[in-house]
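WARN no homologs supplied; continuing
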Amino acid sequence: MEGEDLVDAAAGQGIEPVELLVAGEDVEPELLGEVSTLGHAPRVVGVYRRGDLPRGARDVALGLWHVSDPGNVGTLLRAADAFGACVSLSEGCADPLGPRAVRASAGAIFRVPLLDWDALPRRRVALAAHGGRPLAEVDLDAPLALLLGAEREGLPEELASEQATIALPGDAESLNVAIAGAIALYELSRRRF
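OK structure emitted
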């Protein structure tokens, strides 16, 4: 994990690094710059165990099917964090621990439980760009999995019991998968609270 914000997010969840390198203390600053994936050298780099990340279920899960863009995976982790959901990733998804996904998650990777795909709730509502029932009319009572598909291919029909579509009054053809997931989580949250 590169940067103080991510290291602080891990510490806030009681997750200890295997190794912590601080520029000017443990390592020369230019060495961190050489290994960094950022545009600038971070002040701190932490190394963590994948097994220390939170795991388990919540009443609402985001099921990501072949979402290959790491920025979208990280943004969906952040949205799940904001609305109290867990996240499940199918085979073919971007690694949630890749540098772009971690940065986009803004530390949510340390707070959002990851759930095995086979453990998703049986009631599954797929978000489809077109052809589903309007999201506003769909029952979103938990336990529930909101399924989001690959940016181009979408979801296989057999994965979900129902399809929902977010009404778009503007001219856009469709929404980015991360935006669609955030809107669906907001709609669910709005109804519950």
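The mean pLDDT is 94.
OK
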